[in-house]
Design a protein that fits this description.
This protein is an alpha/beta fold. The protein is built from 9 helices and 15 strands. The strands form 3 sheets. Strands 1, 2, 5, 6, 7, 8, 9, 10, 13, 14 and 15 form an 11-stranded mixed sheet that branches. It has a two-stranded antiparallel sheet with strand order 3-4.
């Protein structure tokens, strides 16, 4: 079994337990690919440099970062630099022979660069140019499988290779959850998304309303309806992972005891591909009826 683990970059996320759990899984013979976020560290570094992080809202209501050239330079410094190196160092101290990779290494993660994004400002739709982000459409699974077969544990971060319209590549930002989803789909792996909450809640302010799993179309619809704020992107990423071939997706707390092992055993909110396929079929059938 291959497990793709994504450790969130929020301040409230403590990676120590997850890293120890990676070591346990590797010691038991499991293949693990670790990915990570880092938006908080990027924002802090930007502020230290006198720059203000820029966030925008899409016409669909999703809030995300706008990555200009200066922000991209900070991403290159922080994500595959300090954060990735720190995780590799920690895993080595746990006895795991980890290898740090960015999406640009060996064309690991590749997609089309966006030079502009559609945003909503003051209720109006606008085009904001100068963006340095992209959407991943290609994963070099052979590279990851070669690294895993050699007994190493990959630790993957953005940036990714963005294809330019006129040819060539530029390193660009991509959402870390969606990067993990792309990798899990390409490897047909279980994906565990570790964050600062214990799962997806029907009421985002009430942990007691946690949704345990989505194995039916109705449950999957409930998960999508419940997602808001930062969880919206995680549910989008989960859907992409399952569509891409992932065996399952679990959103769970990074701060639990043995967070990865417990997530795989049923903690958190688990989404399965059958529910997604059934939900899409039901949606298509409903659409055909109303046409």
């Amino acid at each position: 079994m291959t497990v793709v683990v994504k450790i969130g970059g929020a301040r409230a996320v403590d990676p120590e337990g997850a890293l120890a759990d990676v070591a346990s899984l590797v010691d038991e013979g499991e293949e693990v690919v670790l990915t990570h976020g880092g938006s908080t560290a990027v924002d802090e570094t930007l502020e230290e440099l006198g720059e203000e992080p820029t966030y925008v809202e899409t016409p669909g209501g999703v809030v995300g970062r706008f990555t200009d050239e200066e922000t991209m330079d900070v991403f290159k410094m922080v994500m595959p630099g300090k954060l990735n190196t720190d995780l590799v160092e920690s895993l080595q101290n746990e006895g795991v022979n980890a290898v740090g990779l960015s999406g640009t290494d060996g064309k690991l993660l590749e997609g089309k660069r966006k030079s502009a994004v559609r945003v909503k400002e003051d209720g109006k739709k606008k085009i904001k140019r100068g963006d340095h982000s992209g959407t991943i459409d290609s994963v070099n699974a052979d590279l990851l499988e070669t690294v895993l077969a050699g007994g190493y544990t990959p630790v993957v971060s953005v940036p990714v290779l963005g294809r330019e319209k006129e040819g060539g590549y530029t390193a660009v930002n991509a959402d870390a959850d969606r990067a993990a989803a792309s990798i899990a789909g390409a490897l047909e792996a279980d994906l565990v998304v570790l964050t600062d909450v214990s799962g997806i809640y029907e009421d985002p302010d009430d942990e007691s309303t946690k949704i345990d799993s989505a194995v039916t179309p109705a449950e999957f619809s409930a998960v999508k309806d419940a997602a808001e704020g930062f969880m919206t992107k995680k549910v989008m990423a989960a859907e992409e992972a399952l569509e891409g071939g992932a065996a399952s997706v679990t959103v769970a707390s990074a701060n639990a005891d043995e967070p990865i092992t417990s997530a795989l055993a049923g903690a958190g909110t688990t989404l399965e591909p059958g529910a997604l396929a059934d939900a899409e079929a039901e949606e298509t059938a409903n659409t055909e009826v109303t046409q």
